[in-house]
Structure formats: C-alpha cells, structure tokens
Amino acid sequence: MRTLLRLFAILPLALFVAGCNRNPNVEIVGSYFPGWMISLVCGVGLSFAAHSLLRRQGLSYMIGHPAIIYPGMVVLFTCLLWLCFFA
Fold first, then answer.
1. What is the pLDDT, as a whole number, of residue 7?
2. Is the pLDDT assigned to residue 21 strictly greater than 90?
3. 15 in a domain, yes or no?
4. What separation, in Å, do the N-terminal and C-terminal C-alpha atoms of the chain show?
C-alpha cells in the first residue's frame, strides 16, 4: 500500500519532466515557428471549414450558442492537431 501511494506521489512529477525532451519548432522559409502556432492556424481553418460545411448542409441552426461552440471547436482541433503531430 505504501509503494502504491509513493507511486502516485512520484507520477505527476514524472509527467512534468516528460515534456522537456525536445523543442517542437517547425522551419518554414528559413524561420522557426513554434508547433502550437501552426496547430492554432490549422485549427482555425478547420473550424471555419466545419462552419462552412454545417451551413451548406443546412445544419447551422442546430448549433445552440455559436459564440461558445466555434471557439470550442478551434480549441478541439488545435489540441488534436498538436497531439497528432507534435506529441
């Protein structure tokens, strides 16, 4: 039981150190951009594409509060792209 408690005490510290292994920069035309910035731009683009698709299909009226849903979609797409390409 004590070793299990010790493991749960050490595990969060190991997770903080796991992110320090490399710097996720991407070279674009000779300049280095952080990976999160590229993921954010792509996330905004995917959210705009989803909005266009919903509007074209006539389903945009089903979105309850667009001011909450679309920024949430940007965050969702950004985090998914970050996890897929940089994690």
1. 72
2. no
3. no
4. 33
Report if residue 25 sits inside a domain: no
Question: How crowded is residue 57: how many other Cβ atoms within 10 Å of its Cβ?
Answer: 9
Q: Which range marks the domain in which residue 53 is found?
A: 32-86
Residue 41 inside a domain? The answer is yes
The tokens for 44 are: 């905004």
pLDDT tens by residue, 23-78: 677 777 777 778 888 899 999 999 999 999 999 999 988 888 999 999 999 999 99
CA–CA separation, 45 vs 86, rounded Å?
Answer: 18
- Tokens standing for residue 34: 């952080």
Q: Which residue has the tokens 């969060």?
A: 12
